[in-house]
Structure formats: structure tokens, C-alpha cells
Amino acid sequence: MSSSTGHLFRISTWGESHGGGVGVTIDGCPPGIAITQEDIQHDLDRRRPGQSEIVTPRNEADKAEILSGVFEGKTTGTPIAVLVRNKDQRSDAYTEMATRYRPSHADYTYDAKYGFRNWQGGGRASARETIGRVAAAAVAKKVLAELAPGFEIIAYVSSIHDLNADVDHDTITATQVEANIVRTGDPAMVEPMIARIKEARSEGNSLGGTVECIIRNCPAGLGEPVFDKIDADLAKAMLSIPATKGFEVGSGFAGTRMTGREHNDPFYMDGARVRTRKNHSGGVQGGISNGEAIVFRTAFKPTATIMQEQETVSSAHESTVLKGRGRHDACVLPRAVPMVEAMAALVVCDHALRQRALRGDIGLQPPVPQKD
Amino acid sequence: MSSSTGHLFRISTWGESHGGGVGVTIDGCPPGIAITQEDIQHDLDRRRPGQSEIVTPRNEADKAEILSGVFEGKTTGTPIAVLVRNKDQRSDAYTEMATRYRPSHADYTYDAKYGFRNWQGGGRASARETIGRVAAAAVAKKVLAELAPGFEIIAYVSSIHDLNADVDHDTITATQVEANIVRTGDPAMVEPMIARIKEARSEGNSLGGTVECIIRNCPAGLGEPVFDKIDADLAKAMLSIPATKGFEVGSGFAGTRMTGREHNDPFYMDGARVRTRKNHSGGVQGGISNGEAIVFRTAFKPTATIMQEQETVSSAHESTVLKGRGRHDACVLPRAVPMVEAMAALVVCDHALRQRALRGDIGLQPPVPQKD
Amino acid sequence: MSSSTGHLFRISTWGESHGGGVGVTIDGCPPGIAITQEDIQHDLDRRRPGQSEIVTPRNEADKAEILSGVFEGKTTGTPIAVLVRNKDQRSDAYTEMATRYRPSHADYTYDAKYGFRNWQGGGRASARETIGRVAAAAVAKKVLAELAPGFEIIAYVSSIHDLNADVDHDTITATQVEANIVRTGDPAMVEPMIARIKEARSEGNSLGGTVECIIRNCPAGLGEPVFDKIDADLAKAMLSIPATKGFEVGSGFAGTRMTGREHNDPFYMDGARVRTRKNHSGGVQGGISNGEAIVFRTAFKPTATIMQEQETVSSAHESTVLKGRGRHDACVLPRAVPMVEAMAALVVCDHALRQRALRGDIGLQPPVPQKD
Amino acid sequence: MSSSTGHLFRISTWGESHGGGVGVTIDGCPPGIAITQEDIQHDLDRRRPGQSEIVTPRNEADKAEILSGVFEGKTTGTPIAVLVRNKDQRSDAYTEMATRYRPSHADYTYDAKYGFRNWQGGGRASARETIGRVAAAAVAKKVLAELAPGFEIIAYVSSIHDLNADVDHDTITATQVEANIVRTGDPAMVEPMIARIKEARSEGNSLGGTVECIIRNCPAGLGEPVFDKIDADLAKAMLSIPATKGFEVGSGFAGTRMTGREHNDPFYMDGARVRTRKNHSGGVQGGISNGEAIVFRTAFKPTATIMQEQETVSSAHESTVLKGRGRHDACVLPRAVPMVEAMAALVVCDHALRQRALRGDIGLQPPVPQKD
Question: Looking at domain A4-359, which CATH architecture does it have?
């Protein structure tokens, strides 16, 4: 269904930017996983507005309440419901938008789909909907920590506009990313990126960019052949984040300009472990993880809301103009980082449980045939 | 499940490159749709090997048989099963591969996942699996033709290696694409692309590229908010095709280097219809179609099988080398075109039925509020 | 997943008897359906404890709050979240039960399943979980009222212990059922049933019984062949209600003692409408509704909690005894009536939307072939 | 979807009684399970017509062919497709039925649903559709044999018309059931039941009855709280079999006439194992297996096709009469036994894999708390 994802670790989000709140229900979480409200809150705080000088100053406390499914600090195996009340609502900032379609927003398409729309804020298209995803992913990461020792997801801003970060996939740490407000992996790019965002904001303009994500110590064997390939599910998960326009794994679009000779990743033995010399595959072969780092990038378009006058039409289908108001991010990239990590955690957690159903365990290495 | 896709128009493929055959079951197809074995055969012939001098000479007749769900030339509303027997099997060409992991293939990951593998050919990772998808899509296109008059999907090769086609999205026709064996949309690129493929083949090397796809006259309102966005489902569908590494819709990765001012698509009235001046959105806003052409690109890596010696390991986990043998495409792009179209048709057909469940009809324009 | 049901009109419940509350999210509800908090509250009040002298005196206000998916009194097409806070919690009444398995309850099986259990109250096995279902069904009934004019679901107590109600399926009304606190359809049985329940309660014992349900004006054509037959889905829905042990449709088990001659329902023309002379089929043939009243019965075992000492074992696996305490229904049947209606509404609503996806409309009569 | 069932061990059947054949695809089967065509054939032979003097003489060879998913005698973890060609088709026996609705068959409801029908034979409503289920269950039973040692499903005819079998749940064996052509568990009832069936057939009449099923050594902990209770899924599975009208588990409808005192199953320790003194629960508490034998009964109505003239209407909606012709079972009960076993195996296998996903293992006993 439209608001649920995952086959075994299944989450359902609900809620709009304006209304009683937003939330998520997690169904299929294994029992006995230690989780606290603080674990969830920590991740929510990374995605919320108002964290730094370069994101929207809208101050949303985003206080998470676990309503069910956790008893004495551990998951019970039954649905975990998390609620975040809406607080800082200024629907007056949006009245004009009630009757004018914001260019490159979802206003017109929601009307086309439903014939009807909650015009207060962005409805379900609001980035606020991602609160439920981030909360659910906090639980997914706890599950993965038990299933796959050393499992780690690190995302960072790899470009803003035409500024590209230079990041070493093998050494980058979450601490390095979190140490700067842009959440880029390249210290040399922090100041230029901040300056570029401030410049766009001062012009009432906006910027896009890319987020790269590394998943380390993902066991080999996750992902299903054919339709539910792990990279196919990651692609869908990333394109489900607001404002995304592209996804690539491993060599991605650049790989199309290589020959097979250049592109292929030779196998070799690293002790008892099968490894590849390079990682153009991005950790996925035939839709199944091969034990190398899973590496992918997601493209975010520039924020649609700009503080400049734009041509548009009214919901009465008459020509008009619209100038954005209210408090918006000139660049969503820093706040997109935890969303990318969250969606990645949800995808991998679901596939880990699917593999456990199939084999009784995950992270199995292929058996070594006996020699005669 | 791994081998099924779609929520209402749901297909399940089965079969390996070696064994009894391959096929598909389509569940949820509306009744009364005219379909013949020839309709399906026509599409299968476009994807099969042996069509031209630049694809693998392996000659697979790929004769489709409709086993159920069609009566007196029309769908009955019950499952449509399609069977294609395997014919031209030379498993001896693969014996060496039984014990050596082909670099950048799915051999190792299948062993890691299942602890066991049908090493004759590529198993489920074989491009032969896509026969079922193409057969199912032949039916989906018939359904869409009834639901959405003028609906049209056209895909073409937009690049091979570093050769880029220059194509006008508005005027390109299926006939133009099918008129050349590369299936590119740019007549000027036909000969250079053919020459480049032949050159790679003669070196035992391989090439990748991109396929662009245009969906015309897709009604506004298709796609679901949040997880099942139509572009998210297209992304997953494309990444489920063998050898794909990336997906982008509308402006895609290039859009990340624009400002919001440049990127936003202003609305205007084109008679009674709401339209956008540009189409950086690629026909999708907030995950829902807006009535403009849906435009997306898919990246295909160079074919993994090359006729050169490569470093690898055996299934006994010892270092070894492997040189590809058998008959393989040096470049899958021409044959990927019908696969891209097929997956796109399946995604849109499913969303069209979902919208019909929600509203009783599709293609509804948003109501125009009455003026007082 | 365990806590979700429905393919297009999909609900997910969450929450335990003790904890932050209980609730439901409805995904896939068509837009534009008028619904208020009061509509939901009305149905919740019918299922809650404390309504009359024969149900548990536990007083749960069960105040429903719609958190999302409704705007200006109408559904928006996006998820509708409903929350009911837990209030009257006396977990001390249950401490003994923390360590002793209550016979014929779910205490032991939850421990067997999860290795861990929220022992405060019944957890997810509590009848309190059904609040979410009843709330969701209030919305489903609104949808059905728009899709199928005259659509009506009436359930009533058809037996308690060995007291059987004599009810005319054609004439019974919801008002007649609601007019007595037992919710039986036979006025002559009201006093005997009340007396029987009071007698059982005074002995610390409990009683079971059956609920019969009539669905009127359900369009022909709902239900899917093979696995998702409408009566199969009703069977599953009924067996998902706590304390149920059986389901039968139409002639049910009694029909097994008829011959085909006696059992078959001859068709005849009633004006332009195809009807059956009898209704042993219970309104369903081949898993698909035929336009006659759908009639089914559900068996409820006697309440497991009794105020008498019973043999059991502790969670430490030692022999012990347990005597129920707290406030419990000696007979759940009166409160089961709205639960049966709710589950029936959810099943039919889902199938109505599935049929609309397939045909663009529901309630289509089969076309009459033209005569030459 | 209508023709698929199961969440992890998922099967999709296809095919009509007339057409290319019938079959099934099994998705989600664990790899490495030994299975042969003969294993499947053995079970198919138990359900096919023409086995004995009391079932339809129609001779269907029902030769199963495994098309995919099995390599060198073991499942590969990828979809297993099984095909059975249609052979003995006499569609002329049905021409009359093309235009006249057979009473209590699915002819009219299929027309109502689809506006269109394959009138050759029963289409998807034919018992022939169950071939796919029985084939899939042969695989499911192999999986269960590996997951749950000692696991056993035994079904038998517990009544025909008003003749009731007296069977000891604890001692009945599959060999005893298979030793008589009625497949009843009570030797004393074999001759009376055969005589009753022959009598009905000689009159052109038909009979119904009940099938009881015992599942032994099912691990405790299978089944999900709330909607996917194991008995709810069994109820749905049984009601999906053609001609069924009822389901009851454990005490069933008879249990509604007991008091709680009589009905409750006290727990006691049987060595290290928690057991119940009685089994009114039928092996299921709160929708989850408790380790005792799962016991349930399914009601089958008398066969709808009778060789007597019946009132009906034509598809042109005119009054007419119809007399059955062709070769039909006067009583489906003997052939229903393997169908009941098959559906039970599919349900339990799916739940076993779901439990393994949740816990990494099945058959876990609840942990015994340590004493201080």
C-alpha cells in the first residue's frame, strides 16, 4: 500500500504536516531488541529543522512517544507505534497556496489524484512524513546490530550544486560527517558548501545535490533474485524520499562509459573470505550483496519552494503568479542524510529477516566443497 | 516475493536458462481484453537473441504458449499463464563455470545466498528470465490501451559507451527506433554505435550504455504518495533488469547542478488542461504523474561476460583464472530496449488499476472550483 | 503481516491493553468520504465494556481521536490514523498472571512464540485490540454506503450456551437487535439469556455462544476465485476475533446432512434480477457474492477467565493453581456483535474496491446476451 | 491476489479445467530440499478422479512436470513451476451449461463478476484447480519434515450425510485412512458410507460431509497475533476449497454449549514440556500453536451437479430447466481429504518460515526462568 513498505520488517507511516501529528507503526520486529525513546529521539533530532544556521529555522520539537510494542525496554514482537505530535503549525503561511499550485510541488498532482487536498502545508508530501521513517529505522538499526555484527550505514553529502566532495569510502566515519553542519564527508568542502547555501538563500533561490551512502559489513547473500533485488529495493526506497530524481549503485552512470574489461571486479581470496579487487559492483551482484561495501548515490533536486515570483495556475485553472513564503530549506541535503540512512536501514533489515526465513541464519558464507 | 511484482496487476515469473522453460503468470488482469499469442510473440521476438548482427547469435525460438486465462481471444479475469520452452541449451559451454565464479556475475552471490546453485547457465540471473516480463507486458499494454487512450511507451538507446544519441522527446516514434538494429533514437548515431559494438566484440570486450524511455499520455494522478511513488516503482522496476546500475527521472543527476529557479516547471493553462512550461520533473511531481510525458533513463553496465582471461576464485575458494566462452552479447543495450518498455508498462498498468480502485476511473482531471 | 489486513482497504492495528493506547491506521480509503470522530465513537461505544449490567463493569472511556487523513470532515485518500488512549489500567490485578499461565488464554503461546511477553493484561490478545478494528470499520461502512446503496450489515446473538434465538433473516432490523442488552434477534430469548449469563457469573463461571450476521444488498460479483473467496476471507476475519472457534456460511455444517437435491438453490427471474429460490448458499457461490443476503455464523467459546481455581503451570514450569481475579465478561457475546459487524464490513469494503479496480464499477449485473 | 496464498512460502495457481493445463508456481521455498517429480505425483494421484468405484470415472492422468527451481534433485531457492497438461476434455458435455446457470455452481457469479466466462467446464471453480495446491503442498511437506521433526498431517472423512465416523485422534494413522476408498478413519463406517454414496449416485443425487484433520508435532509458537492467527489462516484455507461451507477448530460449535469450567484446558508439566490435560483448544490458543495436536473440521456441501432436472435461468435471463450430464462425483469427500491436508501443509509451512524469520529458529520452547 502507499504508506507501507517492507515484507517482513514492515512499517506504515501516517500523518500530515498539519493535523494531529505524524507517526509510524512497525510490524514484524523481532522480540527482545533493546530500544528506548531516546534512541529514536536521537535520530529524529538529526533530521529535524532548526538544527543549524543553514537549515529551515522552523522549530519542531518532534518529541517521539512509543505507544506500544516495547515492554521493560525491549521489543515484544508486536507492533511498535510511535507518535510525534504536530506543534509549530502556521497554516496561515500557506493560505495562498490553498488556491495556487506551487510549481514543482505535489499540489496539482494531489488534486489530480484525489480531487481533493489538505492544502495546509504539504500534506503527505511534506518532509515531515519522513519522521515516521527515521523513527522506524532507529529500531531497524538495533535489529541489524544484533543480526550482523559490525554492520554500519554512513551517508554524507557528496555534492551540492557543482561542489563535489572527495571522500574515501574505506575510511570515512559517522563522526566526521556529523562534525560539520553540511554533513559532507570532505572537510575541504564544508566552508564552500555553507557559503553556497547561504548565497542561494539570500537570493531566495535553492540548491540540490547528491548524498552518497556506504553500508559496511553487510553479510553476503541479502537480496532476492529478479524483482526484489537489494539494489532495486534501495532504488525504490531512495526515490520515495521527497525531492529525489535519481539513484545509482557502484559505478552507476559512469560505469556505462567503461568497457567490461575495466568494469569487472575480479575475485580473490582474502584469507578465508571471497573478496573483489575493486568494487564497481557497489557490493551487489545479481541483486544480492556480495559482502563488499554497498555504495550508492541519490540525487536531490533543488528545493521547489523559492522566495521568488513564479508563473503558475490557480486551482480554479486561471493563470496567476506565486511567491513562496514561510520558512524553508534553501538546500535539503544536510537534512537528507539521516533520511537516506534511515531508508537504507529499513531495506537491509527487511532483507536480513527474509534471508533468515530462508536459511535460518544470515551471513552464511558459501560452503567450501571438499577436495578429494 | 522475489519473483512477483505489482499490487493489482501482479506477475510472477519462473524458470532458468536451463531446465524445462521459462514463463509467467499474470494475476489481476481485467476481463474482456483482446489478446492473442501473436501479440505476445511480437514482443518476445524483439527481445530474443539472434535478431541482428550485433546481438548474440544464440538462436532461441522463444515460442510463447498461452496456457490459461484467455478464452475466445479475450482475457477472462483469471490468471494468464504463458510458457516458453527452453530449446537451444548447451550446458557444456558452462561446465567450467560450474566451479569458477565469473567476475561481476551472480555466481558467487547465489552460492552465498542459497549455499547451492544451478550452475547451468545463469539460473534466474539469466536475461532469459525477462521473457516472462516481456510476455506479461504485452498484456499490460493492451489493458493500458483501453484505460488510457493514446497511451504510449517508447524506449531507445540513448548512449553506448561514450557515444550519445541526440533525441527529441516530443517527436521520436517507435518506428524510428525499430528501424535500426541498435534501437537508438538518433539516426546519426546508428553507424558509429554499430561500429563500436563490433570493435568491442572483436576484442572480446564489452560495452554498456543508457536507455531512455518516454511515456506519453499517461493520465495525471497515477502513483501513490510516500512509498509507492510512480517514479520509485519505476526505479525499482528498472534496477530489477539484469546489468542495471542506475536510474534517473526528468532532470535526474544533472538537475542537482541547477538552482530551484532554473529547475522549477511553471504551470500554465493549455486550453482546459494544466500543463508545465518545461518538464524537468519528468512528468512526476510528489511521486504522482502530472500528465506530462514521463521521462527516465536507465544505466546498463558493460556485459560481464568477456572473452578475455580474468582473475577469479573457484567455488572451492582457490585462486584461478577464467575466460568466457559461449555466445554472448558484447552489448545488451539493443535488447534492453524492449525490457525497459516492458517493465514500464507493468508499473503503469498496476498504478492505473490502483487509481481505478480509488476513484472508479483514471485520468480524472482535478475539478475546477466554481466561481461565485 | 500479523497486524494488518485487507488488500486495498488495508488496516493496521497496534497497541496492548496496558501501555500508551491502542489504535489503527487505515490505508487505501477513497478520498471524499464524509466521516467524523462521532461516527467512530458511536461504534466504539457499542463494543466497550461497562455498557450494561451483563458485561464487564470495567469502565473504559475509549475516546477516539482522528490524527490524520481527514480534512474538513472528509477523507483525503491518505492514511487515517485513529488513537484511543488507555485509561483504566489496573495492572496489579494481573501480577499473579505474570508468572502463571491462565488456562486457555494466550499467555503460554505468546511466551512460546516470542520468548518474552508483556504480562500486563492480555497484550495483543486482549479484546481491547479490537478497538482499532471497530474504528476502521466505521470508515469502511461509510465507503460501502457510497459504493453500494442499501448495503447493510446486521449481526445478533443467535445462541448463548444452549439457548437458541429464532430469527427471521429477512425482517430482522438493527434497531431490534440494539433494543436489548444481549443483542439477540429474538425478543423471547432476551430474558432467558440475561438470566443464564447472570447465573454463570454468580458461579464464577462463563458461557459461549454464536453470533449470526446478515449482509444485505451486497452487489453480486464480490470475492475472488480460488484463495480470496469472499467467504474464505470472512472465515479468516471471524476466526481472527478473540475466543472464536468456528465459522459457517449459509447451510454450514447442517448442510452436510442434506442431499444435493435438497441443498441446491434453484435460480429464477425476479423481474430483471437473477435470484435464488432458497439461500442455502448463504449469498456466496464459488466464493463470489450472488446478490442474495450473505448469511454466516461464528462460534465463540466460553470466556477463558473464570473466578474458580484451576490447575496450571508457572512460567518457571512448575505445577500450580490460578484463580481469576479482576473484572471480566462472563459472556462476551453481546460485545462480540459489533466486532463481527466490523470485521464483515472490512472484508466487504476491501472486496468492493478490488472489484472496482477490475471492472471500473461494482454491482454490475451480468450482461444479458442479445437474442437473434 | 486471488490466485496466490502464503506470505513467505507463496504459491500461485493457474489454469482451468479446459485449456492448456493447470499448474502452480512456488515462490519462497528454502533451498536444498530434496524433492522429485514422483513425490508430487504421489500426492496428485490421491486427489485425481478415477481412483475407485465411488469417485468420478473421469480419467485424468494428471502427470506433473517440474519446470524449474529444482536442480539435481534439490530445490534451488528459486521459483518451482509445476505443470499438468489437460487431457481428457469433453467440452461437448458442457455445451448446454454454456447458456444455463447450474444451480449452486459458480456460473452465475462468474458472469456477474467478469461479465464474461470460460463456460467450458468449471473454469477456475473446477476442482481441477486444486491440482496446483496439492503439488505445492508436496513440497511444503518436505520443508516441514526438515524444520519440524515428527511433523504429521492426517485428514480423514469424519462424516458423510448423517453417518458419523468415530475416530481416536491420538492413534489414527495415515495408513488406516488410505486403506479404505472412502478415506474415513472409522473401519466400521467404510461399508455404510460406500453404500450411501452408491445409493445417492444411483438416484442422480449427491451427498456432503465433513473432513477432520489432525496436525501432530507442530511446534508451539506458530501463528501470528491478531489477523494472521494460525486457525484464522486455516479457516481461510479450508473455505477456499471448492464446496466448503464451514470450519471449526478444537471444540468448535459444540464448545459454545459448554461452560468455561468445562471448556478450559488446564496446563500441566509432562516432563520438561508444558502440556494441556484436554484439547478443547484444538492445539491453538490466541491464534498461536501450543504444541498439542491441531484439530479442525471442514464442512463440504453435497455436490452441486446432480443428474436430476432443476429449475434455473439462462444467461439470457429466461426461465429454463437443466439436468446435469457428464461424469461427476456424487460425493467429493474421499477426494477432499488430500485437498484438506494440502491446504493445511501450506498454511503451517508458511507460518513456520515466518517464525524462523522472527526468531531464527522454530520450535523454541519458552525459556524457563532461573530460580534463585
Answer: 4-Layer Sandwich (3.60)
